[in-house]
């Protein structure tokens, strides 16, 4: 049975508003040619049934939700509907998540390696075993994935909230995050890399935006004996864009065989300069005439830092969960960097949402909830 998690982590139940905080009636309130003042004062508001129904998803997925606080003591005449309505004193737009249940984190995974079967005790050993080496170009301004625990992340459930991430945290150490799912005889290990900026535009590229969640997913197939063998890797690259769907570069990423990116048994990946897209080889790509360098000949940093497991949302414990920031549904940076909103974010300056709900052109939360769907349209 799926565990339904509401993103509203801080619920405030207000029984009586002090007079000093009550919403004042607007000039239209109780003063309408169509409504006698005394009649309006005596009116009672009967909410329609659908207004009290929360669209909680009953299957795995992400659904927008809205919670409103009304002041029923102060009514207002709405000329648009010719009806009496309550004053809206608070309004929260959020996201409702139905996540998978948590797997047994202490189970033993037997994986096939070049030197024979290897027993990995628990999910932590599993994600450390397949964590990638990341190669950065010499001109990269953010030559490592950053931790996010030091940022001031509001846990109010507001999907329109923005957090300031542009400046790297002081004394940061390289950090990778990971989640794990099992489905139809396969394991999927999602790896997430965070960078304070995507400044590809400053490196002859197309765009720049604050905050940057990138990553790769390792898929392992189950053998007849119950052991797992690495099969392929899905690489997060540019946002999936249906307008440019004729170009492979805009299908969201690339899927490559494990052996092609792990020549010595360890995943070895290359990071696009400025864009932080993930590639399986050292090269220079061209995206709509814009160059994207991911050239190993200029590698400055090879990363093998700490790997932090991100539990399913149903395992969240506000008192002890150091990764509770993953429940933030808002934007990691400015929602619109230059303040000019272009349809479909064609300008590419919108900050992303976090690992759980990010879309990158897919339905919200696809990679967190179903990495197989996320990979299904990638070029290979």
Tally the beta strands: 17
Number of domains: 2
β-strand amount: 25-35%
* Fraction of helical residues: under 10%
Radius of gyration: 24 Å
Q: Detail the poorly predicted runs.
A: 1-53, 240-244, 246-250, 298-303
Instruction: Note the gap between the termini.
Output: 35 Å
Contiguous helical run count: 5
- SS-derived structural category: mainly beta
The main sheet comes to: 6 strands, mixed
Tell me, briefly, the overall form: globular
Explain the overall architecture.
There is one protein chain. The protein has 380 residues and is mainly beta. It folds into 2 domains: 97 residues, no CATH class; 268 residues, no CATH class. 34% of the residues are buried.
Topology:
Blueprint: E1 3-6, H1 37-42, E2 61-78, E3 83-99, E4 108-113, E5 116-121, H2 123-129, E6 133-135, E7 175-183, E8 186-198, E9 209-222, E10 228-236, E11 253-257, H3 258-261, E12 268-271, E13 278-279, E14 283-287, E15 290-294, E16 302-303, E17 306-309, H4 366-369, H5 371-375
Parallel strand pairs: 6-12, 7-17
Antiparallel strand pairs: 1-3, 2-3, 4-5, 6-16, 7-8, 8-9, 9-10, 10-11, 12-13, 14-15
List keywords for this structure.
6-stranded mixed sheet; 2 domains; 380 residues; 4-stranded mixed sheet; 33% strand; 17 strands; disordered N terminus; mainly beta; globular; single chain
């Amino acid at each position: 049975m799926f565990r339904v998690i509401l993103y509203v982590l801080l619920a405030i139940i207000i029984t009586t508003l002090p007079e000093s905080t009550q919403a004042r009636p607007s000039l239209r309130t109780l003063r309408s040619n169509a409504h006698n003042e005394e009649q309006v004062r005596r009116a009672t508001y009967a909410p329609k049934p659908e207004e009290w129904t929360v669209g909680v998803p009953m299957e795995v997925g992400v659904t927008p939700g809205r919670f409103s606080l009304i002041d029923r003591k102060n009514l207002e005449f709405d000329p648009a509907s010719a009806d009496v309505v309550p004053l809206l004193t608070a309004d929260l737009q959020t996201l409702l998540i139905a996540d998978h249940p948590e797997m047994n984190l202490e189970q033993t995974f037997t994986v096939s390696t070049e030197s024979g079967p290897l027993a990995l005790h628990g999910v932590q050993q599993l994600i450390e075993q397949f964590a990638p080496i990341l190669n950065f170009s010499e001109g990269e301004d953010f030559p490592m994935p950053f931790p996010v625990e030091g940022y001031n992340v509001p846990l109010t459930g507001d999907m329109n909230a923005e957090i300031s991430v542009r400046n790297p945290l002081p004394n940061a150490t390289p950090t990778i995050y990971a989640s794990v799912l099992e489905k139809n005889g396969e394991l999927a290990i999602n790896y997430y890399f965070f960078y304070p900026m995507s400044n590809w535009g400053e490196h002859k590229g197309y765009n720049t935006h604050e905050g940057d969640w990138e990553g790769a997913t390792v898929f392992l197939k189950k053998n007849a004996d119950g052991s797992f063998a690495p099969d392929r890797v899905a690489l997060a690259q540019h946002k999936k864009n249906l307008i440019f769907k004729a170009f492979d570069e805009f299908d969201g990423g690339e899927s490559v065989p494990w052996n092609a990116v792990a020549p010595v048994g360890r995943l070895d990946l290359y990071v696009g300069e400025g864009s932080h897209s993930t590639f399986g080889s050292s090269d220079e790509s061209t995206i709509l005439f814009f160059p994207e360098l991911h050239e190993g000949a200029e590698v400055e940093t090879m990363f093998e830092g700490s790997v932090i497991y991100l539990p399913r949302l149903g395992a969240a414990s506000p008192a002890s969960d150091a990764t509770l920031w993953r429940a933030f549904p808002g934007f990691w940076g400015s929602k619109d960097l230059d303040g000019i909103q272009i349809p479909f974010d064609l300008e590419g300056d919108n900050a992303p949402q976090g690992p759980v709900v990010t879309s990158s052109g897919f339905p919200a939360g696809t990679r967190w909830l179903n990495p197989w769907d996320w990979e299904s349209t990638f070029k290979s």
